[in-house]
Amino acid sequence: MKAATLGPPDRLSRALWLAGGLVFAFIYLPLVVVIVYAFHDSPIIAWPLRLGTLRWFGALAHDRGMLEAALASLKLALLAVAIALLIGVPGAFVLDRADFPGKTAFRRLVLLPLILPGIITGVALLTFFSFVGLRLSSGFPLVPGWPVVLGHAAALTSVVITQVFARLQRLDRAQEEASQDLYANEWQTFRYVTFPNIRTAVLGAGLLVFTLSLDEIAVTFFLIGRQNTLPLQIWGLLRRGITPEVNAAATVIFALSVVVIVVWARLMREDGAT
Amino acid sequence: MSATESPGLLDRIRARPALRTALSAAVPVGFVTALLFIPYVLLLVHSLWRLRGGVITHELTLENYARLFGTELYPDTILFSAGIAIRVTLFSLLLAYPLAYLLAFKVQRHKQLMYMAVIIPLWVSYLVRAYAWKIILGQSGILNGLLQSVGVIDEPLTFLLYSRWAVILALTHIYTPFTLMPIYAVLEAIPPALKEASQDLYASRWQTFLRIVLPLSLPGVLAGSTFAFVLSMGDFLAPQLLGGNDSALMVSNLVWSLFGVAYNWPLGAAVSVIVLLLTLFLLWLANRVETAMNYGGQTRQGGVLAAGRTGGPVAGAGRGAA
Amino acid sequence: MPDSAPILSLRHLSKRFGDFAAVDDLSLDIAAGEFLTLLGASGSGKTTTLRMIAGFEQPSGGEILMAGAPIAALPPFKRDINTVFQHYALFPHMSVRDNVGYGLRMRGVPAAERAERVTRALAMVKLDELGGRSPRQLSGGQQQRVALARALVNRPRVLLLDEPLGALDLKLRKEMQLELKHLQTSLGITFVYVTHDQEEALTMSDRIVLMREGRIEQIGTPRDLYDRPASRYVADFIGDTNLLPGKVAASEGGVVTLRTDDATLRGVSDGVLPEGVTAWLTVRPEAIRLAGPAELLDGENVVEGTVSDAVYAGSALRVHVALPSGHRLVANVPSASGVTNGAPARLAWPVPHGRCVRD
What we know:
The complex is a heterotrimer of chains A (274), B (322) and C (359). Chain A has 274 residues and is an all-alpha fold. Chain A is 76% helix and 0% strand. The longest helix of chain A has 34 residues, at 64-97. In chain A, 50% of the residues are buried. By secondary structure, chain B is an all-alpha fold. Chain B is built from 15 helices and two strands. In chain B, a hairpin with a 2-residue loop joins β1 (50-52) and β2 (55-57). By secondary structure, chain C is of the alpha+beta class. In chain C, the strands form four sheets. Chain C has a six-stranded mixed sheet with strand order 6-7-8-3-9-10, with helices on both faces. In chain C, a hairpin with a 3-residue loop joins β12 and β13. The longest helix of chain C has 18 residues, at 170-187. The A-C interface holds A 172, 174-175, 177-185, 188, 192-193, 196-197, 274 and C 54-56, 75-78, 81-83, 85-87, 89-93, 102-103, 106-107, 150-151, 154.
């Protein structure tokens, strides 16, 4: 950027840096606090700080309810990702290429779960499943039931559709024509030319859906059967009072999030280079 | 390879574009219709049904809406939620803009890295971020403890937590990165030559900002604000965790209890429908404003229209997709 | 040009987008081994026609026959035709070699043979050393050659080229024009070339199809179009020319007498032009000379005016002469001629060098 040529740092610049820095700190402060207190050696989360214990992580590792909830969340997320990708990628192609009556309606409908408060989508799905008669617990033990799986998929397919659609729009259609010109049929063209070019968007969307599913509360609350997911479990703990174990759980979640975003950043950079 | 293969079944499908479209669109459109369209419609239908003695009867009635508009609680809550949302949006904007500006124009090295750093909190569980404020603001929380040990106060401050300000604070914290992203995107897209031209024509840096950069960044500001507003108005977690029993009841909490503890689905559905309509209206409004800003021309990068097309707050403008 | 049955036949081909007819009842036979150019302005339908031959657009009406067999119902990957795209459409995620070998791979050519043919194709376009690179690392000219190799390696019967040289700078473009022409002649493959650049068309083609608003304006060899334009549009499109409007006074034995605002002129024409209609006299600048004030000019057209500009163009002097009626004529004269602005000028040219055409 040519900003450097617009003059040496001065009061305006320094004020800007200060402001920016403060905002940055504000964004991070609460997280830092939580992480720090995960190592605080006291069941009371208060000042002063006594660092240096891993007992809360230990408690976490032995908390059966949490572990089961984490496992259930994981399975739910994986299922949601699978369905969202299977429906969403073709859905993105449909938006990009097909023309049919009601296409505009379809496009707007797809956007709804992304812009509405999650709770609205959650209760809508609840009324749907109860109307259809599907019981919330139907499914396998330790896997949240079909309503919640389908609910996550329904809410999150939109993410896949919009992300992949955005990528498709940037795709050079001439390449697909060239591929067909060189004797590749539609499936071969998709496999050898189209998909490699949208792969990062698909993976990125999958990653995003995975993360969102793990963190999902609104839709999950209404559709869950007996087995809790991780956020619901944590929330239950929170409502009963704060245990420092939650700090440990939050720290673990944060660490995982950083990993996820590093992977995502890698993917996006690859994408940008295409 | 001969040029004279006779057409097979696939070719016949290819030659009939309508059939081809139908086949390829069937599954995604069917899925979305079944699991999104129908549920939303059902919600609407539920809002028109009657609750009699704890059972939902399938008679059509408008009594839920009558009750909704008639009882003070509901419109008050909606207004209250809007009030919270406005404040959150304003504060987020005030915080996000300088940082976005800094990142876009002043950061030379590691710009990508810095941007990622700002985005990371968005990927951390929303629950965790809201909860963090609980331990900071609580009576026996960190802020109180700090202030007490330093001697600023003797007794813990009770008004910090379980108040509307705690909710506003937490929501601002959560949605500032959300607001930042579209603003950053738009600022990044401003060609440096524009700022140079402005200065070439005798405008100071401040004037350049006011007359060139700020107006050009408005689509991003609009997008960020719209989504921050819509999302914070519909938030239920922050009020529940930090709002206390009655001091910060927001509209989503109402829906929550109507569908949960209070078990009045029709009324809850009615409230939901109102929120849905309100949200759609706000987005439509934002679109119109944006179109007006563009003088009716094509959507520019980073605006509400663009963000809406590529996934809205969570997916498109959100989560680091710059 | 080999004299045999046409390799491609377009019969009453049309393509409509809503109410708009991009291609309108176009019929054309393309001979095997010829270099045919579809020439025209944007919107003339030339690219749409090419895309229909390739299979990327479905005709709204008409037929496309290849060696006598209809192909319009076939998808692109079942046609023995390859395309060089305007912006090359190279696959960025594959190496140059993989790009070039793609078509062979799709047709199941075994790896060893594939490798050999790819090597030869790259040698043919003089990119021997660049096989391992990614397309992003190549210059525009190199990318263009890769696109060419990728198409030619498959030995198609017809090669379609969609303004392939448009993105290259002038010098490179002229080099590539010659190379493409040589390639075509040595390989004997039918080339169907689309361009809006008439000079390019004149340089490379065996035959040119000048298209206008979805229809054929004129088909012929470059010389046909240059020397014997069938209409004012063709005369104006191809090369530089002068155009003087007038009314037909007489038309006999191939010679038309045209009454213009400045003089009564005569020109040749292929058909009979009805008396009284508006027509145009077209004469190339290089056919006009500056006559001396006292010269006798039998059998020639003479027009008098004033020099308004004399533009030096290296090899010639382009003299702009303003006529009393307000029209202008441009004459190309040797650059050593002494011409002064504002001086009176007598322009003359032999009658056979001017043609009378209608719109």
